[in-house]
Specification:
Largest sheet: none
Low-confidence stretches: none
Oligomer: single chain
Mean pLDDT: 77
Radius of gyration: 19 Å
Number of strands: 0
Strand content: under 5%
Number of helices: 3
Length: 88
Amino acid sequence: MNRERSIENTKKYAILEVMFFNGYSVGMQSFVLLSLAIYFNMSSFFISIVSSLPTAGYLLQIFTSKVNNILGSRKKDNGNSRQLFQDW
């Protein structure tokens, strides 16, 4: 019973921590990115692209393990991404 209560308390604190972190992260990123975009006179299209980059990074973390499983190893994944961006 004591262990179950401890797990429930840990879940509550973890959820609160994530809520505050996401609020702070989104708020600061939006503020900083929007300020830089306005300073450099970016168009609204590029502002929308730049503001979606943090979310794209979070989604990339989710799919990285699946890509590693498909390619076979992390080393191959890094080599392929380096080759892809080297061509740009």
